[in-house]
Amino acid sequence: xxxxxxxxxxxxxxxxxxxxxxxxxxxxxLVRIRAxxxxxxxxxxxxxxxxxxxxxxxxxxxxxxxPGDPFLLEEVMASLPPGSQAAKAAIDMALHDxxxxxxxxxxxxxxxLNPARAPETSFTLGLGPVAEVEAKARAAAERFSILKLKxxxxxxxxxxxxRAVRAAVDSRLVAxxxxxxxxDQALRLIPxxxxxxxxxxxxxxxxxxxxxxxxxxxxxxxxxxxxEPVRTARDIPRLAGCVDGVNIKVxxxxxxxxAQRMIAVARAHDLQVMLGCMMETSVGITAAAHLAPLVxxxxxxxxxxxxxxxxxxxxxxxxxxxxxxxxxxxxRPRPAPAGTEDSGxxx
Amino acid sequence: xxxxxxxxxxxxxxxxxxxxxxxxxxxxxLVRIRAxxxxxxxxxxxxxxxxxxxxxxxxxxxxxxxPGDPFLLEEVMASLPPGSQAAKAAIDMALHDxxxxxxxxxxxxxxxLNPARAPETSFTLGLGPVAEVEAKARAAAERFSILKLKxxxxxxxxxxxxRAVRAAVDSRLVAxxxxxxxxDQALRLIPxxxxxxxxxxxxxxxxxxxxxxxxxxxxxxxxxxxxEPVRTARDIPRLAGCVDGVNIKVxxxxxxxxAQRMIAVARAHDLQVMLGCMMETSVGITAAAHLAPLVxxxxxxxxxxxxxxxxxxxxxxxxxxxxxxxxxxxxRPRPAPAGTEDSGxxx
Lengths: 347, 347
What we know:
2 copies of one chain form a homodimer.
Chain A: E1 2-18, E2 21-35, E3 38-44, H1 54-61, H2 73-79, H3 85-103, H4 107-110, E4 123-125, H5 130-141, E5 146-150, H6 155-168, E6 172-176, H7 183-195, E7 201-202, H8 210-219, E8 224-226, E9 245-249, H9 250-253, H10 256-268, E10 272-276, H11 282-289, E11 297-298, E12 311-312, E13 315-317, E14 320-322, E15 332-333
Parallel strand pairs in A: 4-5, 5-6, 6-7, 7-8, 8-9, 9-10, 10-11
Antiparallel strand pairs in A: 1-2, 2-3, 12-15, 13-14
């Protein structure tokens, strides 16, 4: 199999602020694997908290030899050297895309899933001044029925923000604290957020504070999801009894196959499953979306604020994920908007 | 989809004695599902310890409607009423067989697996007088490199049997105690069996004695596998820390898909995986064998002592599992032996 890759800079519609910092652009890597005259697409979105970078992904991919064919996926993935999980995810996606293209079926069908079972995706609103988030919420409420608010350590600020958004829109609301709170803060904030109608809280405490989660979990009136401590299937057993669910991200898992294993492990521990993402083009988001029929919650909005996404794949209609029915990922190049190139259509 | 089923009585080459009793025949059920002009095959081997019977399987299947198509497997399985796990396994197998036949690929390929990675299968020798087991061991050693001995509560008898077999053959030896021992017996027997070169022990203690396993496990010089307590993925987390591995059986799991989930859960808990079986035709054994590239140990000998197996599928050559390369399960009707019918070939 022949592997190619190229860097891609994603421009974001709005600067995206989270507890860890601010992003204006994201630097990802597109992967193409050719086999049997077909091309499989994959994408690596480096996870900065895991010290991954675009350059690191490209270093990992440089000179990599992929043995066998796309149907030896398990073996090909096992043959990869340790290193970038995002790069591995891109390879796994491209191999799955090739499998589907060689067999002429979309991935969800290859996996025995009904695309109509995919849950609605939430849409995430970055941290910001109340008026700004409120305005974004009003706009997003037109297109999504579930909005995810990012919250930080400012307790009064969190409550003011949620009250304002709650008053502004009828949407279902959920929140992600990105490790910002102490146990005491969480014990004060979560009941107040429950009173305001929030449905769940993601990662209220520090990544490694399982002890804190064990205290918080039985007291919390809202379901708690773990995010930062969840990378691969081996991370899940120790979270059982600490949280109600886990947020699984293909980029951290190192591929769709490991993500499937993670879903199985979460279910065996009676955990709810959310499918999350990074800032990605429609390649990465569509790949994850093919798994959505297996999960309870989808947070697959990472392509929606990218202004230069070169691809079209999964679509969102009133929050509903509409999976493409083409073979493999079903992703295709995005046609250039009328007037942006000398295409002869300029009339 | 159209579902058909028929009872089948398997005749066994030798009466098969285990701690729970003796078997001369086994009464299974063959399932056929038709869709898109093709037929998928499945088999239900009722698990008597779970109070399953051939009649119970047929009652479960009677009048069952299967919605959708074989590629909606997840949904079809979720739509089945509670009840016979063996019947569900047969349906799941037949749907997988149909998927593979519709796409023209063997199951292992659909699952991204390399059939060359399947471990050798062990061959099981039933309980019996020492001389009889020793003779069976000599015969089996010609065709298998790993022999599994059934052991019971008679400590001196166990040791005499293992010593005799050890002296008679060069094969690798493993043993299954089928819940027969107390913790104290196991603590005496396992070191002695280790000295005789056994490689692992399956289910030394009573099915529910996890407390006992927790005591035995750190003291045991041999890896311990759980069998009886392992039915579906949810049974596995509580076994972590009690044993070194689990024996997964498709008939107890209720299908290949659940078996795959179980393998993922076992791996997340750092458990070794063995793939076991019931007495089955080549339909059920071949279905399980397609999963073998994912596991450490295969104990897929349930069709080898059936004298009237109507099918040919996975073959065994010197213990090595040779998966068929036909689409789906790759199972086909066994040609009648020359001379048994008026075929015109009688010359």
